[in-house]
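Cont'd.
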Amino acid sequence: MTDAVIKCDSVYKIFGANAKKMLQEANGNVDAKTFQKMGCIVGVNNASFEVAKGEMLVVMGLSGSGKSTLLRCISRLTDATDGKIYIEGQDLLSLNNKELIELRRNKMGMVFQSFALLPHKTVLENIAFPLQIKGMETEDSIKKAVDMVKLVGLEGRENYFPRELSGGQQQRVGIARSLAVEPDIWFLDEPFSALDPLIRKEMQDEFLRLQEKLQKTIMFITHDFDEALKLADRIAIMKDGVIEQLDTPAKIVLNPATEYVKKFTEEVPREKVLKIEDVMEKPNNENLGDLKVSKDEIIENVAEKILTQEKSVTVTGEKNKIVGTVQPSKIIHTVFGGRRNNS
Amino acid sequence: MELLKKYPKLFQWLFLLIVFFALCFSIDVPETYKFIRGQAEFIKDPNQSTYTLFGTEVRYYAFDVLWRLPPLLGWLPIWVNDTLFFLLNEWMPMEFWNEATREYKTRPLVLQITRNITAFMTFLIEFIREILLGGVETVVAFTSWDFVSTYRWAKLPGLPWTIVAAGAAILSYKLSGKGLAIFAGLVMIYISVFGQWKPSMQTLSFILVAAPLSFAFGLSLGIWAYKSKRVEKALYPILLTMQTMPQYAVLVPAMVLFGIGDHAAVIITMVVAIPPMILLTLLGLRAVPPEVIEAGKMSGCNNFQLMTKVLVPTARRDILIGVNQVIMVCFSMAVIAAFIGAKGLGWNLLLALNQLNIGLALEAGLCISLIAILLDKMSLAWANKQEDYFGNLTFFQRYKNSLFFAGALLIGIILSYAGSFYFKEGYNYFFEVPHNKGISTADFWNKGVDWIFDTFFVYIKAFNTWLIVEVLQPMRALYLRMPAVATLVLVVGAGYIIGGIRSALVVGGLALFIALSPWWDRALVTTYMATFGVIISCTIGLTVGTLCQQNKYTTKFMLAVCDIFQTFPSFVYLIPVMMLFGVTDTSVLIAVIVYATIPATRYTIEGLRSVPAGLHDAASMSGVTKFQRLINIEFPIAFPHMMLGVNQTIVFALFMVIIGAFIGTEDLGQYILKALSDKAGGGKGLILGICVAFIALIFDNLIRTWVQKRKKHLGID
């Protein structure tokens, strides 16, 4: 794929004194437990994937699964032990310090779990910080920062210090700061994990709104499976440094690749995740009713309508083209039956 | 057996005490023993034994090894002295260009280096001093004497006090606001009206050189240590020793290297002020959250930007405490450095104390304290200053402060010019109030002291006698009665029980160094005085702290009081106690108690305050009374932090005991003071200082190790 913005090719990150040597000896066959005995901790184990332009990849895993480490490898906050990472075709690991700084100044933005705002700077100064680091005039950078403040809806608090803001507001500043340089690639490391559930939901919606507008290439880290389902174009589920499965939310819910992934999917309400296209059958002309639904509808939203029908429902794709049919019984099966079948 | 398993530590301690007392009672005091002022004296006495090491003959009074160890390190001070002398006068002679005589001259390298540093420091001090007080030497340094004598205007007249006062007020206003401006103005007016202008400006010029230099060096070294593990490892033990070393002790070697005068004072001040600055910088940088560093990196900072724009500002809180420490040390050194000829308030204070003119000493001391508080507040305000991006300021608003200063400059000059016509008798009060022409309240204070002394003499004397005869003398005798071996066993045992083998080795090594030095007896006296002070200070501090902590307002009030008291240079504490108790051990001890109570109180309050609110609620819901809560919940949780306070109390107490030597004590401090006037005192002063530092470090190590374990055990950190 040529339009991959981020491309990882069997990336390893192993912490420990002689990690490199041990990795060579293991010959690509890394086992976390044996490494641990030798005093090494496996952070990322053979990660290969691509993120396309404008795509949002959510990396999901519990604490210690290596998801943050993976992100730090890709932003090169730590150096990967082995493997290749390409950012827009550029070999990240071969960049020298100066090139790396250039890359970060222009292409990357990052949001942190604990917000990581500079405590001695006001909201405006925090947002203007990356611009000033780049060498922009103070006045221009402040002007730009004022725009960013509007974008994240913090008007009126420009001169507050981070300690005077609530968690949600602080993270808005963090988001604004990471977007100030208009990066192409946006890294978010558990940005909403430190927030209250209500604020979290609000921030997620806000985030989706922003992404719709900005269309960045995103790597989003979370330990919350629901959050992943809600936001992701594709989800990568990690365990012990290994990517267990990387797929769209629907496919992960329908076909969990491993037992571990299955545990997450069990409690997920399917109707909220699956779209009509995930359950439809090939178009046939028998026994069709009048109702037409789009293949991109989430089942939950149209289930009531479909279930009042006796006949099958026509599914339409782009430009109202018929792409398939759905029987009401299939919907009933998905909503109520699927869970038992899977368990 | 059950009990033994349940409280293993308790039995270890019991066992240690039993061994200790058994040793004490089984080893008899040798008949020939009397308090040894100093082993390894040069006095020849037929009773002395001698040994020779490294070509140095050491004489000492030999006792049973169990009673007092022979001073095997007695050669060390002599050796240090000889080395210093050698380095300064003989090592690496080189050709150096001499500008004055226009020829090459052969000089040892170290001597040349120290002379260059001296010249540099002298230049800086003179420069600031001449701006404030007037003079010609700076102008001469850039031109020549001929130039100055040809052009009379080249003589700097110095700023009239009105301008400096206005300048200070305007600067304070700019930094903080009205409150500080008024305070600054009042301080300056007080200084001037009381005729302390000249010495104050001399002190200020010395501090304006020492403080920024210490800050810069401390910050850079701190950053370097943060970046390199190796540097940190090399620096750390030196820093710890330096921090606990009494300031007196540095005087002597510095005097040997740099001679006497203001420049030497600046250098010593830097030596004392830099270590806390380094430590606090390091501490602050360490505490910067990793995510903030990452955020900086992801914003595209290069290493330099990361340090200056992210790390240092984020660590600002600790670094500011460092600045505060630097300023405090500078002012306390302003007095101590007077011993080696630093001019200014400190000199006046010492002089006044020597003449027992308490009133004068009080005025000088107050001046020092006021300037210290002012500078402290100003530096704090400067660091917290915030920039305003939205103000669409007019020309006047933007340059308001500069305009005001220009106005003040003009008015000040006109005033002092007019004053030269108005005041005919030769003193221009609008320019400078001479030292002896200001208002002085000295007489009032002196009379007051006399009155107190006359009125309460009987009671004070009775108290004094009681304290010395009934408490201090027996305590001192007890300490001196300890055989060296018993003391060492106690120290090593405590180290082992608290921190395991590692602690035992460190602590034992430190104690052994003192035991092998020629001043074990004096060290015991120092320890006894410090112990007495610490016990009383901790009792007072704990009580006051606990009581104040019960109420929000008293807590605030007490912390503010602690802040102010901490700002006073340590020497100032001697003034009131000398007023009341004259020149006795009691005076020193009371000064120690007052001084050392500050950290005890502060840490008690902080410790109690750090108990989580959730625990309070949980306790209240279990139905405890206030008193039960204090005993069962707050004290156990706050205790580790309070122990850190005890640690500080010990360091403070030792400091004051050593400074108390000025009044007259029989401990290590007295000897350090003596080394000042000793031609071969450099080595002695240094080793004595190290001995005092080691006493403090023994306690420091034990307490810190214990606190760490305890905190881990309680799960607070």
